[in-house]
Amino acid sequence: MKKHNFNAGPAILPDYTIEKSIEAIKDLNGSGLSLLTISHRSKDFDAIMDGAVAATKRLLDIPEGYSVIFLGGGASTQFYTIPYNFLGTKAAYLDTGTWALGGIKEAKLYGEVEVVASSKDKNYSYIPKGYKIPTDVDYFEICCNNTIEGTEIREDWDVSVPFIADMSSDIFSRPVDVSKYSLIFAGAQKNFAPAGVTMVIIKDAFLEKVVRPVPTMADYRVHVSKNSMFNTPPVFPIFAALKTMEWIEMSGGVKEMEKRAIDRSEKVYAELERNKFFVPTVEDPADRSRMNITFLLKPEYAELETAFLDLAKARGLVGIKGHRSVGGFRASCYNALPMESVDALVATLQEFEKSN
Ligand code: PLP
């Protein structure tokens, strides 16, 4: 049976990425060696690293004065690396859920944290509005796409202090005005590679604002100056990231990814609005994530949860169960998800309505 992969992460990747990765694991560019066994100091790997940096810069139209690095450790590593480097006295954070809190918790180890607003009162089902960002902070950090709660910030705000964003689950799903940010980070395992690498885009001038002595491996300046090669980088995910970026470029770039994300998510949300059994967890369409669509059975049908999960499984829908903190269901619709899978989800929602 055809599987439709709605996993939240690790998640679906383009067939192109998988095929090119398998080829390279067997034999990298006809070298007779596997990608997994070559030196990261070799010319072959240099080309992969340089290619991945260049492709990121092209795809996101990154202006001069920014560096792109690929680091091990996952997006969670950035939660402490950022305050370690940049939190001297006080930082501001927007509390939009689990992953925003991940950053807030670590920042508190290094200085004062001002949470400018929170949507905790409604289980993080909206993006807070109408707050002031203090001007006496070292930086302001947000999580753009809240993978678990299904909300998303899609505008690149004008912020008067250094602006930092976790784009782990929506990177490459829209054009980004990188010039608005001092630092962007994104764990790979949602929209561009297997787990094991995190991409960081950092404004070079921001590197001059490091506030304390930092251990070498946590020092952004080291990784930038060594082109992500201070230590052994996660070679395989970086190769796969390069292949995904090639696929995005061949498909029409991030504008096209945005169009596809709109088409996919509009179709699913429209069905959730229409279907008498289900309701999206995020009320305001402007706050709804295009990447992670969270939905519930209406309270009067809540006991049918297992029945829907069973039907989804029977129809080949994988990874549709919601995170335990939100409950219900979550359909993650990353860049590589074909419309065919969205159609399968919509058909299953309709079949469920008819048969109950
Ligand atoms: N930030 C966001 C938005 C995420 O969705 C996740 C993981 O799902 C993380 C950070 C943490 O990523 P990692 O598991 O790579 O540390």
Automatic annotation (TrEMBL):
It is found in: Cytoplasm. Its EC number is 2.6.1.52. It holds the Pfam family Aminotran_5. GO terms for biological process: L-serine biosynthetic process; pyridoxine biosynthetic process. The keyword Chaperone does not apply. Its main location: cytoplasm. Its cofactor is pyridoxal 5'-phosphate. Pyridoxal 5'-phosphate binds at residues 75-76, 99, 147, 166, 189, 231-232. L-glutamate binds at residue 41. Residues 5-345 form the Aminotransferase class V domain. It is an enzyme of class 2 (transferase). The keyword Transferase applies. Pathway: Cofactor biosynthesis; pyridoxine 5'-phosphate biosynthesis; pyridoxine 5'-phosphate from D-erythrose 4-phosphate: step 3/5; Amino-acid biosynthesis; L-serine biosynthesis; L-serine from 3-phospho-D-glycerate: step 2/3. It catalyses: 4-(phosphooxy)-L-threonine + 2-oxoglutarate = (R)-3-hydroxy-2-oxo-4-phosphooxybutanoate + L-glutamate; O-phospho-L-serine + 2-oxoglutarate = 3-phosphooxypyruvate + L-glutamate. Binds 1 pyridoxal phosphate per subunit. Keywords: Amino-acid biosynthesis, Aminotransferase, Cytoplasm, Pyridoxal phosphate, Pyridoxine biosynthesis, Serine biosynthesis, Transferase. Catalyzes the reversible conversion of 3-phosphohydroxypyruvate to phosphoserine and of 3-hydroxy-2-oxo-4-phosphonooxybutanoate to phosphohydroxythreonine. Belongs to the class-V pyridoxal-phosphate-dependent aminotransferase family. SerC subfamily. NCBIfam families: PRK05355.1. HAMAP family: SerC_aminotrans_5 (MF_00160). This is Phosphoserine aminotransferase. The lineage of its organism: Bacteria, Bacillati, Chloroflexota, Anaerolineae, Anaerolineales.
